Amino acid sequence: MNVRRLIPTAAVAGAAVLGLTALSACSTSGTSDHKNGDRLNVVASFYPMQFLAERIGGDHVSVSTLTKPGMEPHDLELSPRQIGGLSDADFILYLKGIQPAVDDAIKLSESRNTLDVTTLTTLEDHGTEVGGEEHGPDEHEHEHEGDAAGADPHIWLDPVKYTEVAKGVGKSLEKTDPDHAADYRENTAALVKELGALDTAYRTGLEDTATKTFITTHSAFGYLAERYGLTQEGIAGIDPEAEPSPARISALHSIAKEKKVTTVFFETLASDKTAKTVAGDTGLKTDVLDPLEGITDTSKGDDYIEVMKSNLAALRTALGAK
After folding, report:
1. For residue range 192-227, what is the model confidence (pLDDT) as tens digits?
2. Which of 24, 200, 220, 265 is deepest in the core (most CB within 10 A)?
3. Which of 93, 108, 114, 88 is nearest to 165 (CA)?
């Protein structure tokens, strides 16, 4: 992961010691005493965590996010105000390994209820090329290790893995706020049903295609590719700002020709320059495949479900679905 903007531990510790309690400007709760009638004060690290907190928490939570819309989450810098506010949160929901600054700040915070969602599923090592036969959630022998080198954190782009995470988040909220456990269970069940329908749409929609290979600038779709029998060919690795080598560009030219690739995908929160260069050299089209790290005005949908459906449509077109 990109660690160039990692906040020094000393700076994080200093902010924590100051005891600053204000959250980011998007927070809508001024107190953590939810038992006296206020909503549970939840801090989410970035959009995929925010979506789960809002959908499962419903009316019983007030959710703030550390990553503003349109910001590249890998490069997040936390203000002292945000770092201090973590200690005042009732519940912190994050994904370890994608935002080093967040990982460090949470480690030093005094929050009693934190949930790293990577503990709810398994992580795998993915590079620039990922693919293979379809598999079930229990067929991998890769046990997750929190600091495993090369572990791909983009688990939310696989609806099945995201379902596993959603169930775990629901159970954790039940324990944190037992007075509203029944509502959390109901909201979790409704979301799991939606994610199941999304999985079915992907499974059937990508079953019969002219090619199974797609090229993308940001290698964020490894889990999705494996789930639905596709092959992701990343221009760079799982770090969206990594520069591809000349050898990798040359290899992609050969792959595009051999695998009848039609499209080079880029994302909404990063430059499309590399994608357009590769596409131009090979006579391919370009399109957006959104890694859903944030929702902006340019996103093809207002939430996770809608954007994932847009991604499916883009993949079906690029792969020549029948």
Report:
1. 999 999 999 999 999 999 999 999 987 899 999 999
2. 265
3. 93
Q: Is the dihedral of CA 23, 24, 25, 26 positive or negative?
A: negative
Bridge partners of 131? 231
The one-letter amino acid code at 283 reads G
Alpha helices in the chain (DSSP H): 9-18, 47-57, 80-85, 100-108, 159-176, 181-205, 222-227, 246-258, 273-282, 304-319
Cβ contact 228:134 at 8 Å: yes
Structure tokens at 110: 């005094």
Please tell me the pTM assigned to this model.
0.82
Helix (H), strand (E) at residue 72: none
- pLDDT single digits (tens) 288-318: 999 999 999 999 999 999 999 999 999 999 9
d(CA 321, CA 105): 45
For residue 23, pLDDT over 60 is answered with no
In order, the DSSP letters of 231-292 are EEEESS-SSTTPPPPHHHHHHHHHHHHHTT--EEEE-TTS--HHHHHHHHHHT-EEEE----
Q: Which residue in 262, 274, 270, 239 sits closest to 316, CA to CA? A: 262
